[in-house]
Amino acid sequence: MATQWPAPDDRTGREPLSVVDRIKQYILVNRLSPGDPMPTENELSDQLAVSRSRIREAMKTLSALDIVEVRHGYGTFVGTLSLTGLAESLAFRGMLTSHRDKHFLADLIDLRELLEIDWAPLIVERLDVDTRAAMRSLATAMVDLAAQGREFPAEDRQFHQLLVSMSGNALVGQLLDVFWQVHSLVDDTIGPPTHLEETAQAHHAIIDAIESGSPGELEAAIRRHYEPIRDRMRRSAGTD
Amino acid sequence: MATQWPAPDDRTGREPLSVVDRIKQYILVNRLSPGDPMPTENELSDQLAVSRSRIREAMKTLSALDIVEVRHGYGTFVGTLSLTGLAESLAFRGMLTSHRDKHFLADLIDLRELLEIDWAPLIVERLDVDTRAAMRSLATAMVDLAAQGREFPAEDRQFHQLLVSMSGNALVGQLLDVFWQVHSLVDDTIGPPTHLEETAQAHHAIIDAIESGSPGELEAAIRRHYEPIRDRMRRSAGTD
DNA sequence: CCGCATTTGTCCGTATGTATA
DNA sequence: CTATACATACGGACAAATGCG
Q1: What value does the mean pLDDT of chain B take?
Q2: How sure is the predictor about B238, in pLDDT bands with cuts at 50, 70 and 90?
Q3: CATH architecture of B84-237
Q4: Domain segments of chain A: what residues?
Q5: Does the CB of B76 fall within 7 Å of any strand D atom?
């Protein structure tokens, strides 16, 4: 097998590594990639010379951060290092603090707007016709659903994913998607949806601005998109 | 005590909530705040009617996200909902992918620069004399240390914390601090420090720009601050 | 479709280490 | 220093899920 393990002691006077850190070291030293199989819990228990309980508790920590992915009855694998942990943490923070202060949700919206606006010049420059067409049809679907009084979370999420996909910065795309999820989740807790038609139309306006070729217009369109959302937030602050 | 628990079954046809979710519900329903004490593991074991092993594994998940904080031999408390989980996750991603591609570190630096520049107008407008003086003395300390060939991580981190503290957006401050930590950690793995004096001086230039009162100059100074960092990254890409 | 081996999920009992009062 | 409450750790047993012959 020739699996490599870090030296058990390197006598540098440090305290011994935690089980979590030793498992992380294992992944790093063996240069595993997301999806690669990990040793079974019993193997880890033997090789690290700790009980299976401890291995399992360490695995819980690691899977919460998507460093490993555990499949019941099948095995454990290196995780995809996604930001699901951040999403859970922020969502809970929103739930816990939303009725005390609105700072969190306001900060979140500001951050979404800010990051999308940052890429406006690049988006105007790079956006290809296929992506634009996909965004247009999503916007049309949103308007249709809004006319029926229905919400359109899936379309909205995908629209914003496409919008920032041109940035070339994968980290920003993942972060914005997390922020969308958290915003959507917290927003559901402050009452039934409002501004449906207005928000749906705002997405058409964003594509219009892109087609105009002016970064300034795109920035303005993005700002207008977030206005009804801020308005809804301000109103909810009074009724709570 | 009159602690409230969510109804064990709400017969809406959903699958039963996980232990993790039931503990989260407990915190929400009882409106606990960070620092408030949680029931002991034995109490939770009794009240949720599951074994202590499961409680402990759930606690590991929750503490990884800083939703609870466990103090050995003392008790468990509601966590501070910090972003330590994100820091760990991103740090590991950096370790795992840094020798394959440099996109991650590049994206991280771009994001740091972008977010700091976003607040440049506000910073120029709001920064008070006390904060400015603190930043100036930090910059001086950095130059001194650089002259001795020593690094200055603590000073650098605090400088950037102060820089964005004027934004009024706590979330951005926390995110940037996480990015600083991750960047610092990954940067250590690509070799001994370089550009010490240049980087230290760049911080003086940032305060100079703030004092000039021009947001444009501040933006330029921030960009210049990140240049040697990008240069170091590009050089390391070849030697790996 | 069935049975089997593998692997993770859950539970219990007990002993140990640690912090607080 | 002692006592108590609490989290940490261990080992074993059985249940549940998955994949495969």
Answers
A1: 91
A2: low
A3: Up-down Bundle (1.20)
A4: 19-78, 84-237
A5: yes
| CATH hierarchy code of domain B19-78 | 1.10.10.10
CA distance B17 to B23: 10
Residue A37, strand partner residues? A77
Whether residue B118 lies within 8 A of chain A, CB to CB, comes out as: yes
Name, in order, each residue with C-beta under 8 angstroms of A222's C-beta and a sequence gap of 6 or more: A113, A116, A117, A120, A206
Do residues A199 and A107 make contact, with C-beta atoms less than 8 angstroms apart?
A: no
The candidate with the shortest Cα–Cα distance to B208, out of B197, B196, B198, B220, is B220
| Percentage helix, strand, coil for chain B under 3-state DSSP, each rounded to 5 | 70, 5, 30
| E runs forming strands in B62-115 | 68-71, 75-78
Exposed / middle / buried, residue A30 (Cβ in 10 Å: 0-12, 13-18, 19+): middle
CB contact B235 to A (< 8 Å): no
Q: Which of A28, A67, A170 comes nearest B89 by C-beta?
A: A67
pTM confidence score: 0.91
Give the tens place of pLDDT for each residue, B145-197. Answer: 999 999 999 999 999 999 999 899 999 999 999 999 999 999 998 888 888 99
Cα(B216)–Cα(B121) distance, integer angstroms: 8
